[in-house]
Fold these 2 entries.
Entry 1:
Amino acid sequence: MFEKLFLVFEIILFFYLAFNVGYVFLFSISGLFYKATDFNKLKVTKQNKFAILIPAYKHDEVILNTVGHCLNQNYPTDKFDVVVIADSLSQLTIGELLVMPIKLIPVQFEESTKAKSLNMAMAIIPDLDYDYCLVLDVDNIMEKDFLKKINARLQNDEMIIQSHRTAKNLDTPFSVLDGLSEEINNHIFRKGHVSINVTSALSGSGQAMKYKEFKEIMSKITSPVEDKELEFALVKNGIKVLFENDAYVYDEKVQNAKVFSSQRRRWVASQFFDFNAIFIEGIANLVLRGNIDYFDKALQRIILPRVLLLGLSFFSAFLFFVPFCTMDIWFLGQFFACALAYLIAIPSSFFNLRTLNAALRLPQAFYLMVMAMAKSKGATKKFIHTEHSSTVQQR
């Protein structure tokens, strides 16, 4: 009896992991065919005007540095405005921001979310003032030519483009693991997707979208998982997200296990947010409308986070040593396929001793992800504050 139950468990586990590994392996391979943009060949005939929207919630420690870098863009100063949406900043910080050539919009909510801050700011800003809005997290630093590159990619009236968000700091083992995860996601869910004409995933910041359309869609979003809701609103309306790998936004990575656990709790909750309705709707959109992008987004809801997938694939490989396991060699093959997919997705700059040292923390990261799943209930109902401390790039 036990062997029969084990066989059922074995089959279910195998096919679930096979779907996950097959998905990441497919898009990891397709990411190798991503065509880099040759900016020298792009014909730039217009300079779009950008609103750089920065929701700042309790981030006095980094906001001034972020704004200073924004103002230093290699782009005409009359073609972009920095808009800081100040939520719970200190009076000292606000005083320093007021003397900067930016637009400051103070907001206050009983329960703060990024979406609420964005919607409050856009309710004040006239629709015709800007062509595109660019959303940054409070710790994000744009490379100096960022707006110049993004503008060059938006010459044909494109709707939305996601930039390459990458690590600003790699100074602790957990920041290396966080940065590594970001780059794997960039390869699989952005480069890999656009290479075969499937919509890119959003990163949560660093995306530029037509101002009027962004304002309209965001007006219907208030939850703390605004990036996931925005993704589904876009694909539901047949809008593809483009990806520009060579326009960099530097993002602070978590410094320690405590912040890692807190951040992943929100991420895991957003992964399975409203899962049943979205998955059924994804199938319906594929069958009735041929909307592959929507179906792909629905499939992503059952894709395990990268650390969990690698960990489960690794542990399932040990079924090779269970006497009555009938699929032992297949589990072992799954693990090697998963590891290969990740190795393909890792940038060459991460192949060093620092990454090897960080890899020793993978068991701890796996444990923290499991705990994040266990505690994720309700994490999409409120904003989870992530601590920030880095103000300079440490690459």
Note: The chain has two domains: 2-32+304-374, 35-263.
Entry 2:
Amino acid sequence: MKQILIDRYGPPEEVARYVDVPDVGAPGADEVVFDVLMFPINPADISFCRGTYRLKPALPATPGAECIGRVTAVGARVAHVTPGDLVINLQRENWAQQRRVKGTDVIPVPPGMDLQQAAMLRINPATALLLLTTIVPLKPGDWLIQNVANSAVGRLVIPLARARGIRTMNVVRRASLFGDLKALGADACVVDSAELADAVTTQTAGAPIRLGLDAVSGRATGRIAACVADDGVVCNYGAMSGEDPVMSRSALSARGVTLVGFTLTRPLSTYPLEKVRAIYTDLAHQVMDGTLSAPVEQVYAIEEIKDALAHAQRAERTGKILVAPHEAV
């Protein structure tokens, strides 16, 4: 089978290569084998290849935080999935044609789910949901502000918030994105700038903003902090700038703004398995009924991984880059 490996850290399109490796073999009693039908290239995967991600396994290593697969074999003690089922995998190393994992690591999704959307189900929809529901107890009518609102997570936060009556102030780098975000249900949009706080106050008529979501870090964190109300919370969940978050001392001490961090694995690891499965089942149904979706720009073959990685790093893309490891899906 084919698998993607990196032997060193560096520019992803230079360090990633596909190789032929032995098949994964038959499952053990508590294991599942599945064919990987499709996987996305996420910012975390790019960072993984560069060596800037929080996880740095021994090399050579296989990237891949998520995928959608079809079960081909199950062990004798696995009962919640059967051959033919579509599954997402809670473990990494998914840039391959086939995986063998513990049965508890795979979660079934509805059989009619679109494969492209299913490939992107594990990380971004769950991240958007938990950012919205676990950081601050928001209620209908409350405001939140988020930067990079046109990102995959940002575009999912908007409809999830709207369904709960929560208003979203959406910060982007160019006004041409406003129309797309308003179509998703955004209440207000603004271009990021040094005067962000004044622009936000004008659009919200001074309404307090209880939660700020920051995926940029660096000084962008401080700009979001300047927009939230006194005693509000800024949650940093990404670092597109490549920098650590920066906030003013006055925001922290005089205004009582709290800065917290978020990574999806932390809350999920505290939930019982049945709750995790229920979260993904609900999210899958919201994808299938059209409530949630993520745009896709192009799908590549696994042999084109270098081209796919280069494409995934282009500015102003209109959607995710996916890879289909098999010729026919």
Note: The first strand starts at residue 2 and ends at 6.
